[in-house]
Amino acid sequence: MATSKAKKSGQLTALTEKFKGAQGVAFVNFNLATVEEVQAVRRDLRSKGMSYTVIKKTLMAIAARDAGICEFDSDNLEGSVAVIVSSDDAIAPASAIKDMKKKYSLPKKKIVKFDFAGAIFEGAFLSAAETAILADTPSREESIAKILGALRSGPQKLHGILNSGLQRPYNVLKNADKFATA
Fold first, then answer.
1. DSSP tag of 106
2. pLDDT tens digits, residue range 123-160?
3. Rounded to an integer, what distance in angstroms lies between the CA atom of residue 50 and that of residue 120?
């Protein structure tokens, strides 16, 4: 059944507004997913502060252009594609696709129900392969935790080295007078 122009216009306006407030945008291919799986994914993403929208690919490209985040050709997206938008984290949508791919794939049958279709990152359209690399990037919080861990472990290790390194000469000097009188 064809979608009316009024409905398309409403969908376009809603997606453009989502894109204007977006930090992260990723496109997911859901060719083999069931309706129940898509609904479960949508609920999970909503609980994480993201949205999952199924809309025509040409409308996705127009909304991205109108929002001023990126210009791309809708032909770059293949198959049945949905868009995941996060207003908080630039990498979260791509990471969510990575998690969906793990959770809903059937490796023995070589069936992947959700897969990377592309993403918009820092004003550029990324291919599916580039989106997979983006998904492996640690989030901002993970990066800060790693930096703090490295900064914290450095002084601790230095203290341990200095403490053990100075302990031996201290013991030698402390016991030197015992051997000097003998």
1. B
2. 999 999 999 999 988 877 788 888 888 777 777 766 66
3. 15
Tokens 């990126």, residue located = 70
Please give the Cα distance from 100 to 37 (Å, whole number).
10
Distance CA 128, CA 109 (A): 22
Q: Number of C-alpha atoms within 13 angstroms, CB side, residue 54? A: 12
- The number of C-alpha atoms within 13 Å of 67 and in the hemisphere containing its C-beta is 24
Both structure tokens of 133: 């690399």
DSSP 3-state of 74: helix
Q: Say how many CA atoms lie within 13 Å of 46 toward its Cβ.
A: 8
**Distance of alpha carbon 92 from alpha carbon 72, whole angstroms:** 21
**Ramachandran assignment for 123, one of left (phi > 0), alpha (psi -120 to 50 degrees), beta (any other):** left
Give tens-digit pLDDT for 2-51.
678 888 889 999 999 999 989 999 999 998 899 999 999 999 999 999 99
